[in-house]
């Protein structure tokens, strides 16, 4: 965020500032993600850090306020590199952990119960944000598998609300600009690494990547990740912000269209 930009992070604002910015543009942004291996060259919080930074860009350029990111609560045994990747044993070894720490049953609760607990947490958060006076909620799933959870929680939340309902929409970012970039969406490859290099620079060490490009990095996409750059990340971020602008404008200007059963989200 530049020195001349207004602060858009909800938790950092005083009440009067919140009221003014909410009344000007009653849109809330909620980044959700996880703590997960993203190669030796990236921080483990990449998914959430990336989405938090992207949504701050959205709020600064479009309007609205960004809520604190959610790093916790998802299943730790499903759709997770440490638990399910083909090279999970290598990942665990590089983390100095036994791979059994991510085996089925380690978290005590079955995967289905972990998923339902996360679903309940999301619905609770949506109700909390609605209580704070917003008309539209954009959920940014930095960890791609969480998009399904966000959408299902949003559908449940939609049914629980009385009118006027806060309209919810969930996205990951890359699906909004598919076809405009190569690569577009990956795991810790050129796409994700470059996005984080732009929105939260200084957190990577590309020298830790294999210089022989025929060698796949442990737990990361081998798609030219060595060429990751802030410039590529900036172009991707800008395109995503513009796509979000179009969708948010429609949601805000046509809130009544999204109040009934089966409303598109």
What does this protein look like?
The chain has 265 residues and is an alpha/beta fold. The protein has helices at 15-24, 46-62, 81-84, 88-94, 111-131, 146-160, 190-199, 230-253; strands at residues 27-32, 65-66, 136-141, 167-171. It has one domain: Creatininase (Rossmann fold, 3-Layer(aba) Sandwich). The chain is built from 8 helices and 4 strands; from the N terminus they run H-E-H-E-H-H-H-E-H-E-H-H. Strands 2-1-3-4 form a 4-stranded parallel sheet, sandwiched between helices. Strand 3, helix 6 (146-160) and strand 4 (167-171) form a beta-alpha-beta unit. It is globular, with a radius of gyration of 19 Å. The protein starts with 14 loop residues before the first helix and ends in a 12-residue tail after the last helix. The model has no long low-confidence stretch (mean pLDDT 96).
Question: How would you classify the helix and strand content by structural class?
Answer: alpha/beta
Percent range of helical residues: 40-55%
Shape: globular
Extract low-pLDDT stretches: none
What's the number of domains? Answer: 1
CATH superfamily: Creatininase
Order of strands across the main sheet: 2-1-3-4
Concise overview:
The protein has helices at residues 15-24, 46-62, 81-84, 88-94, 111-131, 146-160, 190-199, 230-253; strands at 27-32, 65-66, 136-141, 167-171. It is an alpha/beta fold and 265 residues long. The radius of gyration is 19 Å and the shape is globular.
């Amino acid at each position: 965020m530049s020195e001349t930009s207004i602060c858009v992070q909800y938790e950092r604002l005083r009440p009067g500032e919140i009221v003014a910015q909410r009344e000007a543009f009653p849109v809330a942004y909620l980044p959700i993600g996880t703590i997960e291996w993203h190669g030796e060259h990236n921080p483990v919080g990449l998914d959430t850090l990336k989405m938090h930074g992207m949504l701050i860009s959205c709020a600064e350029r479009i309007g609205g306020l960004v809520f604190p990111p959610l790093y916790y609560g998802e299943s730790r045994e499903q759709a997770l590199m440490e638990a399910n990747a083909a090279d999970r044993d290598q990942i665990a070894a590089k983390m100095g952990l036994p791979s059994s720490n991510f085996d089925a049953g380690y978290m005590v609760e079955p995967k289905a119960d972990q998923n339902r607990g996360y679903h309940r947490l999301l619905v609770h958060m949506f109700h909390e944000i609605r209580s704070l006076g917003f008309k539209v909620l954009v959920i940014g799933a930095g960890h791609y598998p969480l998009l399904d959870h966000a959408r299902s929680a949003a559908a449940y939340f939609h049914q629980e609300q009385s009118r006027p309902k806060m309209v919810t929409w969930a996205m990951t970012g890359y699906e909004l600009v598919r076809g405009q970039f190569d690569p577009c969406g990956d795991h810790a490859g050129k796409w994700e690494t470059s996005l984080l290099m732009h929105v939260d620079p200084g957190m990577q060490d590309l020298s830790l990547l294999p210089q022989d490009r025929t060698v796949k990095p442990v737990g990361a996409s081998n798609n030219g990740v060595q060429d990751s750059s802030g410039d590529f990340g900036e172009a991707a971020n800008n395109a995503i912000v513009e796509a979000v602008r179009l969708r948010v404008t429609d949601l805000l200007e046509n809130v009544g269209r999204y109040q009934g059963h089966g409303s598109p989200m």
